């Protein structure tokens, strides 16, 4: 052995001793649930090891044909013991006292498999990664959609408490149980608590108007007329792709297909439309011209030149204009729950009146400071805080897409540099938890920032007699990532736990350029703790909403094999999307298990095909 080998061996022994001491000094080990104690020790060993710069040491190990320590997360001390033992044997040094590893190689896989099954249900027949689906409102009205989702491959139903109410959520769960009975499939239920809302408020309407526009070809010829329904006041609406408007009086009921309707629209343009279909108390109108229909527009009905009477439009939908923002514009966030309004610009595009919109989180007005960054609408709009007087936060917009951005109501706001001193559980969350306790398998904690937030949820579950309910920690802000070791150890007081990497909010909080690095670190820590992970946010989003995935989405979906569960959001094509993801996961899992490349035979290396190929012909 040369001096480098002696140095390498001593370095590894020192790192091992430090890791063992670090874990032994952890003060709250007694509070860890018995099922997680070995994993907690492994996590502490891993944290100690990763506090050091190890790249030079890894290169020395690789040069000697030994493990580079690159995949030791799940069995840290066992890996160190093995490498040290080999080096001692090669050097002829007698083995000293070896600390007992808290988790062996075999146990690490078993722990993760057991905890994944306990949280997300039994492993599907052809894949290991489970599929979670966010429920649309339709799931409360019928069990048919849920049957289709179960047959397509859904394993976990996600109920989002940011939308609807307990009655709707309970209807969804009831329909799921009906679908389970009909299909013979089983499915777990996750309840996502809404958490504190940091969003934009409502915007004042600009008026009530509906634009009806025909579709034209390249030469300007109409190939699809503009269409809308007229419905007698108080009658049931028509379920159709075309808009429906109410009219006053009884004249509409006397009309029939072929009759005409004359009106003067919001631009004072005179238009004549025709009735082309009837359905009970509704009539379908067509037009070859663009028409702007506003509240109280007079409609004059006629048949072959004979007047039938007139009526007026009622209950035309309000038009909510977005707040249009350009780089350099200012935007005021208000504490008062006032309706927002767009700013104004002159002919040169210079802002002459500042836009205003409500911010739903009061804590922001106590915490945010001048000079801090702000991101709106999932990072599409960026800015910097210029001032905060406790009632209004003045922002200067520094980043928008080319041509500007449109900010609407109910869009997310992120202050990544602000530290909010507020609990993750709101009064609404506590009420929702009480209403749904015992009906769900796991609860996802939104806006978690510290171990205190985890402890608060555990206390409420204990109070409600639901201590066995699983806890999923949504890692969606910078504080949660920075405090992740303490958060995981606090969660280990409960029997069933998981982590959701909420990549959308997390990317805004830590910066898009750091997202890949951050999500890798989260995966490493969870693997060291043997905690199952949910890969979330915008997986196959285009396919769910528009019917076809992008190439980047397919690659991203394939990467979800790194986790134990992949989450899909709702969309009109969600059943096909579940089926598509199921196929991707089945194919990818034969190549990979977590980060380990699995050496199955490659298609290009089948012996029969190789022997028959031109490559096998010698002398040619």
List keywords for this structure.
620 residues, alpha/beta, M1 Pyruvate Kinase, Domain 3, eight-stranded parallel β-barrel, seven-stranded mixed β-barrel, 18 helices, 32% helix, elongated, disordered C terminus
Description:
The protein is α/β, with parallel strands linked by helices and 620 residues long. The chain has 18 helices and 32 strands. It has an 8-stranded parallel beta barrel, surrounded by 6 helices. A 7-stranded mixed β-barrel has the order 7-8-14-13-9-10-11. Helix 1 crosses helix 2 (37-49) and helix 10 (451-463) packs parallel to helix 12 (484-491).
Map the helices and strands.
Elements: H1 3-24, H2 37-49, H3 55-63, H4 76-91, H5 105-120, E1 130-134, H6 144-152, E2 156-160, H7 166-183, E3 188-192, E4 207-212, E5 215-216, E6 222-224, E7 226-232, E8 244-247, E9 260-264, E10 270-279, E11 282-287, E12 291-294, E13 298-303, E14 306-314, E15 318-319, E16 323-325, E17 330-334, E18 344-345, E19 351-353, E20 355-358, H8 364-367, E21 373-376, E22 381-388, E23 392-399, E24 405-407, E25 413-414, H9 427-436, E26 442-445, H10 451-463, E27 470-475, H11 478-482, H12 484-491, E28 497-502, H13 503-510, H14 515-528, E29 533-536, H15 541-546, H16 551-559, E30 565-568, H17 574-589, E31 592-593, E32 596-597, H18 607-611
Parallel strand pairs: 1-2, 1-30, 2-3, 3-26, 7-8, 17-20, 26-27, 27-28, 28-29, 29-30
Antiparallel strand pairs: 4-12, 4-15, 5-6, 7-11, 8-14, 9-10, 9-13, 10-11, 13-14, 16-24, 17-23, 18-19, 21-22, 21-25, 22-23, 31-32
Helix pairs in contact: 1-2, 1-4, 6-7, 6-17, 10-12
């Amino acid at each position: 052995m040369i001096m480098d080998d002696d140095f390498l061996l001593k370095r590894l022994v020192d790192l091992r001793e430090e890791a063992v001491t670090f874990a032994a000094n952890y003060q709250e080990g007694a509070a860890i649930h018995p099922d997680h104690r070995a994993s907690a020790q492994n996590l502490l060993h891993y944290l100690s090891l990763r506090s050091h710069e190890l790249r030079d040491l890894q290169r020395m190990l690789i040069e000697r044909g030994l493990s580079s320590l690159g995949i030791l997360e799940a069995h840290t001390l066992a890996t160190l013991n093995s490498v040290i033992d080999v080096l001692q044997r090669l050097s002829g040094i007698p083995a000293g006292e070896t600390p007992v590893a808290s988790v062996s190689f075999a146990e690490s896989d078993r722990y993760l498999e057991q905890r994944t099954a306990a949280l997300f249900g039994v492993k599907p027949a052809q894949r290991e990664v489970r599929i979670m689906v966010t429920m649309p409102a339709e799931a409360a009205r019928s069990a048919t959609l849920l049957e289709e989702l179960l047959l397509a491959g859904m394993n976990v139903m996600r109920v989002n408490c940011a939308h609807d109410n307990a009655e709707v959520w309970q209807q969804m769960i009831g329909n799921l149980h009906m679908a389970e009975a009909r299909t013979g499939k089983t499915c777990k239920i996750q309840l996502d608590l809404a958490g504190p809302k940091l969003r934009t408020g409502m915007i004042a309407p600009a008026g009530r108007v509906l634009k009806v526009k025909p579709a034209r070809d390249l030469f300007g010829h109409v190939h699809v007329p503009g269409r809308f329904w007229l419905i007698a006041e108080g009658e049931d609406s028509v379920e159709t792709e075309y808009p429906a408007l109410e009219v006053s009086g009884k004249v509409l009921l006397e009309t029939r297909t072929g009759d005409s309707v004359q009106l003067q629209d919001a631009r004072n343009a005179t238009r004549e439309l025709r009735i082309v279909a009837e359905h009970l108390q509704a009539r379908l109108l067509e037009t070859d011209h663009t028409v702007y229909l506003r509240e109280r527009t007079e409609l004059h009905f006629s048949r072959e030149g004979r007047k039938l009477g007139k009526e007026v439009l009622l209950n035309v939908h309000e038009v909510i204009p977005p707040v249009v923002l350009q780089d350099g514009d200012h935007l005021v966030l208000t504490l008062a729950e006032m309706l927002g309004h767009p700013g104004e610009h002159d002919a040169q595009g210079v802002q002459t009146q500042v836009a205003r919109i409500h911010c739903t989180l009061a804590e922001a007005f106590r915490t945010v400071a001048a000079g801090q960054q702000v991101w709106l609408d999932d990072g599409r709009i960026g800015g910097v805080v210029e001032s905060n007087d406790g009632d209004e936060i003045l922002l200067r917009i520094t980043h928008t897409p080319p041509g500007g951005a449109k900010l609407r109501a109910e869009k997310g706001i992120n202050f990544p540099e602000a530290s909010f001193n507020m609990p993750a559980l709101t009064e609404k969350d506590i009420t929702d938890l009480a209403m749904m306790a015992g009906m769900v398998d796991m609860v996802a904690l939104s806006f978690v920032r510290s171990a205190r937030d985890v402890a608060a949820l555990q206390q409420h579950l204990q109070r409600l007699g639901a201590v066995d309910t699983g806890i999923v920690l949504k890692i969606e802000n910078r504080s949660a990532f920075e405090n992740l070791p303490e958060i995981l150890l606090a969660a280990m007081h409960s029997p069933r736990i998981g982590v959701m990497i909420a990549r959308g909010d997390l990317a805004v909080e830590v910066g898009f350029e750091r997202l890949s690095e951050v999500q890798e670190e989260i995966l490493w820590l969870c693997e060291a703790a043997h905690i199952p992970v949910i890969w979330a946010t915008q997986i196959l989003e285009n396919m769910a909403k528009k019917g076809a995935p992008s190439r980047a989405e397919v690659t991203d979906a394939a990467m979800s094999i790194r986790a134990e569960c992949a989450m899909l959001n709702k969309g009109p094509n969600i059943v096909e999307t579940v089926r598509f993801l199921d196929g991707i996961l089945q194919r990818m899992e034969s190549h990979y298990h977590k980060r380990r490349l699995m050496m199955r035979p490659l298609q290009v290396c089948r012996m029969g095909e190789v022997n028959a190929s031109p490559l096998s012909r010698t002398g040619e």
